[in-house]
Amino acid sequence: MFILTKIADLVQIAPAQFEKHSRVAIENNINAKYANRVIQKIGLCICMYDLLWSSEGLIGHGTGLVNVNVEFRLIVFRPFKGEALFGRISSATPEGLNIRTEFFEEIFVPFKELPDGCEFDHNQQTWTWVVDGAPMYYDKNESVRLQVIDEVWHDQRPESTSEEAVEKAKKISPYSVRGTMMKEGLGCCIWWD
Amino acid sequence: MKILEAQSAILTNFEVYQFLNRQAKEYQEQKRRGPGNLETLRRELLQYFESKPSPLSQEPCTYNEQSISRLLERLRPYEITKGEMIMIVNLRPTNPVALNTVIEDMEDRFDQSQQEDISAGIAEVLGEFPDEEEEPEGNQGDVMETTEAR
Q1: Residues in chain A within 8 Å Cβ distance of B91
Q2: Of A96, A129, A94, A91, whose CA–CA distance to A111 is shortest?
Q3: Which of A66, A89, A122, B123 gives the lowest tally of CB atoms within 10 Å of its CB?
Q4: Tens digits of per-residue pLDDT, B114-132?
Q5: ipTM for the complex shown
């Protein structure tokens, strides 16, 4: 689920942070910039893992900011294709199941990836899997195992600087995961344990 | 920002869990708060790791620094791939049905008794949740003990 990504970047330390140790100021700056943010084709950044290198600090003209070039490794959430993971059902629609984890909400299992014999119950708004005439429910908040089959990237860069374009670009999630529950052992954990 | 290496290593959930726990403790000791986005995300991740069915939710923790190397040793005869091994460590499948979700083409690669031996090996090294019906007996500090009770 997690990988390390090596990144080079420029960190700018404001005078208000000068009282801190450089290492702390650099780490805070990196985490403020990256934690809980998606880099396209890399994944959801968690936090700095280690600082590999940093340059001397150079004070810029006019601003008083200290500029430091750094290289560091970042912990990133990026489940690989074929990876099985735990999640929880957040909602169901006729299109499929929305799954979330505590820290990542954008997982979707399309109905085609549910096992044969699954039906959507419009009254209950849930999917049920009917085996030998007995229905089993994909209830909301139920813990599930799913397997990643695909990932969808969406660059949120707006088409223009107008507020409308910015809002529109933000609506689509920058990174989402598609999963399957076709294989034996996938789906609600309580069915199998 | 420049990406120097998109993927320089893979971490198991246990490693990330340890890292974040240590970070939370260090920050507390140094009376320091990380940026808000980090504090929130760390709390959510720890919550994910510590809620069932995550194996890291079991108390006392059944994983330690040696777990992964011991697991590799125990499962060596079965030629399990690196990706599969990572999933085993993350999900701890202790029965053949759960194992089926992390091993590709399991039916073709392993017969019934092999599947059971792999599951048992995982439970031996990584522990397993005690049966809910039975009261867990005495001291569960030793991982081996817990698994043999089943």
Answers
A1: 84-86, 145
A2: A96
A3: A122
A4: 999 999 999 999 999 987 6
A5: 0.90
